[in-house]
TrEMBL record:
It comes from freshwater metagenome. It is an enzyme of class 2 (transferase). Keywords: Nucleotidyltransferase, Transferase. It catalyses: N-acetyl-alpha-D-glucosamine 1-phosphate + UTP + H(+) = UDP-N-acetyl-alpha-D-glucosamine + diphosphate. InterPro entries: GlmU-like, Hexapep, MobA-like_NTP_Trfase, Nucleotide-diphossugar_trans. This is UDP-N-acetylglucosamine diphosphorylase. The keyword Nucleotidyltransferase applies. Residues 3-158 form the MobA-like NTP transferase domain. It is found in: Cytoplasm. GO terms for molecular function: UDP-N-acetylglucosamine diphosphorylase activity. Pfam families: Hexapep, NTP_transf_3. Its EC number is 2.7.7.23.
């Protein structure tokens, strides 16, 4: 049985994967974001338009025929005007949800400080199988990238790999893309070949090696999806605990990206908060509670409760083994006894 993985819209911690990437970009001083979609990308366009960070300018262009990453970059540049030639362009894939904004900011800063034609993000991997290898010239600069399928045995022994994350000088990228060929294992136009084109033309080609290689990890199957989600949940839990939220067992506590927690909230083991939950100061939840798109007022307490689109008033106490159906409102300071299913 074949199982597909709809990468751009597959959710991690309640948010589509591509939105995690766009969220990282939104932390930079970017003028616009262009998303390249394939045939039938209407759902991607709709979802990103609805959920993108407020105030961020996002545009969409379609790559009608899939001719490779180089062609995708050329399609994306069609959205830019010639007056933007002096700008820098950050190019990154939509399946790297663990990328941190600080890493992107450092990449751009290094690119500008060194007045580079291109600066790429690299990673050192114990097992680089499947990744493009970084090849360096005698001057130490990146002279090219060789895809795994095209690499010699000697090149495959290189452990520094390409992450597919770049910062280009805009005026150099378009002419370099026009020089790309398709004489490779895939018969495609590789964006990676632009690095070699710029190096041979004498432009500075620099790199930044990411400290945590997990940041650049792509998601190509469900095993990698599980690893990425676990890492994201660890980050979310750590952030909330540093803000004053108590988690008795963080490894068994699941909080989605869009959840908001007040100070001194306590989450017992097995608690799952999904969607746009809004939990006010001093609440206590669990163990083994599952709340989705639910609001809790200050100092409310719920036990092993399943609630969907419910509202729980301040000071209310909902005992264990209670189900709250959508639109149920639990009054302030009220007590709901165990073993009930409440409907509006």
């Amino acid at each position: 049985m074949r199982s597909s993985l709809p990468k751009p819209l597959h959710r991690l911690c309640g948010r589509p994967m591509i939105l995690h990437v766009i969220d990282a970009l939104a932390e930079l001083d970017v003028q616009r974001v262009v998303v390249v979609v394939g045939h039938g990308g209407d759902q991607v366009t709709k979802t990103v338009s609805e959920l993108a960070p407020e105030g961020l300018r996002v545009e969409f262009v379609e790559q009608v025929v899939q001719r490779g990453t180089g062609d995708a970059a050329a399609v994306a540049l069609s959205a830019f005007s010639s007056v933007e030639d002096d700008d820098d362009v950050v190019v990154l894939p939509g399946d790297t949800p663990l990328l941190r904004p600080a890493t992107l900011a450092e990449l751009v800063a290094r690119h500008r400080d060194r007045e580079a034609g291109v600066t790429l993000l690299t990673a050192e991997l114990d097992d680089p199988t499947g990744y493009g290898r970084i090849v360096r010239g005698k001057d130490g600069r990146v002279s090219g990238i060789v895809e795994h399928g095209d690499a010699t045995q000697q090149e495959r022994e290189i452990h520094e790999v390409n992450t597919s994350i770049y910062c280009f000088r805009r005026a150099l990228l378009a002419p370099a893309l026009r020089r790309l060929g398709s004489s490779n294992a895939q018969g495609e136009h590789y964006l990676t070949d632009v690095v070699g084109v710029l190096y041979e033309a004498g432009y500075p080609t620099h790199s930044l090696t990411v400290v945590d290689s997990m940041e650049a990890a792509g998601v190509n199957d469900r095993a990698q999806l599980s690893v990425a989600e676990a890492e994201l949940r660890d980050r979310i839990n750590e952030r909330w605990m540093r803000r004053g939220v108590t988690m008795w067992d963080p490894e068994r506590t699941y909080v989605d990206t869009d959840v908001e927690l007040g100070k001194d909230v306590t989450l017992l083991p097995g608690t799952v908060l999904r969607g746009k939950c809004r939990i006010a100061e001093g609440c206590r939840i669990g163990p083994n509670a599952m709340l989705e798109d639910t609001t809790m007022g200050e100092r409310a307490v719920v036990g092993t409760v399943h609630a969907l689109h419910a509202t729980i008033g301040s000071g209310a106490f909902v005992e264990s083994f209670v189900t709250l159906a959508p639109s149920v409102v639990v009054a302030e300071s009220s007590r709901i006894a165990a073993f009930q299913s409440l409907a509006p």
